[in-house]
């Protein structure tokens, strides 16, 4: 009942992007999908092993800020762009803000330019609730909350969002922005809270918790996020922003304790460490608009999502070990270097 599409997905070797590639390939087997990823430390071809060689799937190693590398892809005709590619780790942005400006702002602007020149029918920018800054004990981020980013990461994402808005307003580019809360699930790189804690707990290593651990995040299971992007891609109104959140507010400490409990490990593994500078206290999303307009509903509570996630990491210890050891880089060299 749908017409087939040729999609350009960027950052598809990362955590959310690879989940999205799997989700789309199984839901729309007739769609053509090109995945552009620079394969930074966060990009892992292992995440895509199941789709490799599929006739409707192509991988291209390129930086989204490299216009010359992307032009032939756009020349081949792209119906829609879904931009996941980004430097995504707040702690790294504090050390190297310049990398974040390059990937997140210059990269997005390059994709916007190409989408405009080659008249893509839809451009989806995957953004974050972190652009809104931090909340006190009360209230939720709506799509009208002013942008007030506090880290170089969130500032670079906010900058990208403003360019997307400007390309819609100035050139009529059919662009949409999604802003979602913290994702968790399979294929997440173990520098982020949940996989890091699972990994350390499995190895009986201390679990480092920033400050008092009472920072609140609104956890969203990655598959529910993929469903939201699918809806926005096909039905989202251009020029709009859609917030996506799981209504699962939990403190970091609660998350860590849940993981320890699930794995049968003692809370004595918890170590409180010096808080991250500028650490946002609370994020919480009002996702009413996407629910009302597009009929999106998340299907995972935090409790069952975290169970599935832990089970996935237990079943994929080899993946985890490879990621940690960097062995997947060698894998990449032999798989892709000569293409
Ligand atoms: P990730 O770090 O796991 O993956 C990012 C991917 O982008 C990697 O594969 C990396 O190789 C690639 N990449 C980085 N710079 C690139 C460049 N210049 N050109 C091409 N590829 C490049 O990140 P993620 O957690 O999957 O996040 C994906 C997107 O979703 C990001 O835009 C992020 O801002 C956004 N987001 C993430 C979360 C979350 O909780 N993880 C929440 C809200 C929004």
Automatic annotation (TrEMBL):
EC assignment: the record states 4.2.1.46
Q: Is Transmembrane helix one of the keywords? A: yes
Residue span(s) of domain NAD(P)-binding: 8-308
**SUPFAM superfamilies for this protein:** NAD(P)-binding Rossmann-fold domains
Q: Which reaction does it catalyse?
A: dTDP-alpha-D-glucose = dTDP-4-dehydro-6-deoxy-alpha-D-glucose + H2O
Keyword Transmembrane part of the UniProt annotation: yes
Keywords in alphabetical order: Lyase, Membrane, NAD, Transmembrane, Transmembrane helix
| Highest taxon in the source lineage | Bacteria
Record's NCBIfam families? dTDP_gluc_dehyt
Q: Tell me its family.
A: Belongs to the NAD(P)-dependent epimerase/dehydratase family. dTDP-glucose dehydratase subfamily.
Q: What PANTHER family does the record tag this protein with?
A: DTDP-D-GLUCOSE 4,6-DEHYDRATASE-RELATED
The name this protein carries in UniProt is dTDP-glucose 4,6-dehydratase
Name its species: Paenibacillus glycanilyticus
